[in-house]
Amino acid sequence: MTHFLNQQPPRLLVVRNDKLGDFMLAWPALACLKACEPAPHVSVLVPGYTAPVARLCPWVDEVIIDPGDEADHDARRDLLARVRAANFDALLTLFSTPRTGWLGWRAGIPLRLAPATKWAQLFYNHRITQRRSHSAKPEYVYNMELAEALVDVLGLSPPERPAPPYWPLSTHEQDAQRRRVAEELAIDPERPWVFLHAGSGGSAVNLTAEAYARLAQGVASHLKESVSPVWILTAGPGEEDNADALLRTLEDMALDAHRLPARDGLGDFALSLAAADLFIAGSTGPLHIAGCLDRATAGFYPARRSATPLRWQTCNEASRRLAFRPPEGAGETDMHAIDLEAAAERIARHLAPSPTSEPST
C-alpha cells in the first residue's frame, strides 16, 4: 500500500469496454474514484462507440479506445504500447474478459483488480467475489463496490458514496438543451415532455411499437388536457424507420408526437436527453443515459433473472424511477404479459403535477 501512496495522485485505468448501458452504469463507480483524497487520475478503456459519451464524463481524465476482440495484431500491439507507456498504478476491470486481463498483465500494471469470475481472474492479483449472476443488487452498486475495494487497497481516503445525478449538468446546460428542442420542434416547453425510445440496441428485450403506442394512448387518457404530454421519439442507428412508423401511429391517435431531430453523434444525442421530463424505454443504453442525468425513467424489463429491474436499475433517484416487467409465471421474454394499463396509470401519476410540488423541467 505504501508503494502506491508514494505516487500521488495514483494513475488508474478503468475498463468497461462493452455496451453503452453497461458503461453508463459505471459512472457511479467513476464518481467514487474521483471523490477520493487525493483524487486519482482516471483513464477509461472503452470501445469507439461509447467514446463520445466517455469524453463528456466529468469523472474521466482520459479516454483510451479499445479496438475490440476482432482487432488485428497491429492494433492490439499499439494498445498495449499505449497502456504500458501510461505507467498506470492500478487496473480496475468492471467486467472481466481474458483479453483485458492479459492486457493489464502484459502492460505491467502492478495492481490489477476485477470480479472473481471466470478464468480471466488468473490475470488479476486482487479479486472480489460478487456473484453477479444472482442479480441481488443493481449493476451500478456492484461497480461501486469494486471501486471502493480498489480505494481500500490503494490506501486512499474513501469518500461517502456519491448520490445522483452521476452526470451533473449545470442548470444552464439543461436549459439550453430544453430551448434547443423547443425551437427545433416548435413545442411548448411548459408542457411535460416524454421521450420514448422504442429501439432495443440489438440486445435488450423491449416492447413492440404497437405496445408503446397503446401505452402512450393510455398515459394520455389518464391525464387532463392541461397536462397532456408532448411525445418525443428517439432512435438509434438503423432504428429510424421504426421510429417514424410509431410516430405516424401516435399522430393517428391524435397525440402530440415528434421525432427528435438528428444529432451530431452519440455525445450530442446524450446531452439532448437532459431536456426530458420522463424517459421511457427498455433496458437500453439511452435509458441509462437518462438515469445518469437523473431524469425520471420508466423502464420495461424481461422476466429473465440476468436482466431484472433490480440488476439493471437506472442510477437516478429512487423517486424518479419506474420499472415494469412480466408477472410471475410469464415467459422470460413475454413482454406482452406486462399490464400496460397499470403501467400507463403509474406513468401518468408521475407526470401529473402534485399540488404541493413544483413542476419538473
Automatic annotation (TrEMBL):
<dbReference type="Pfam" id="PF01075">
    <property type="entry name" value="Glyco_transf_9"/>
</dbReference>
<dbReference type="InterPro" id="IPR002201">
    <property type="entry name" value="Glyco_trans_9"/>
</dbReference>
<protein>
    <submittedName>
        <fullName>Glycosyltransferase family 9 protein</fullName>
    </submittedName>
</protein>
<keyword id="KW-0808">Transferase</keyword>
<dbReference type="InterPro" id="IPR051199">
    <property type="entry name" value="LPS_LOS_Heptosyltrfase"/>
</dbReference>
<dbReference type="GO" id="GO:0008713">
    <property type="term" value="F:ADP-heptose-lipopolysaccharide heptosyltransferase activity"/>
</dbReference>
<keyword id="KW-0328">Glycosyltransferase</keyword>
<dbReference type="GO" id="GO:0005829">
    <property type="term" value="C:cytosol"/>
</dbReference>
<dbReference type="GO" id="GO:0009244">
    <property type="term" value="P:lipopolysaccharide core region biosynthetic process"/>
</dbReference>
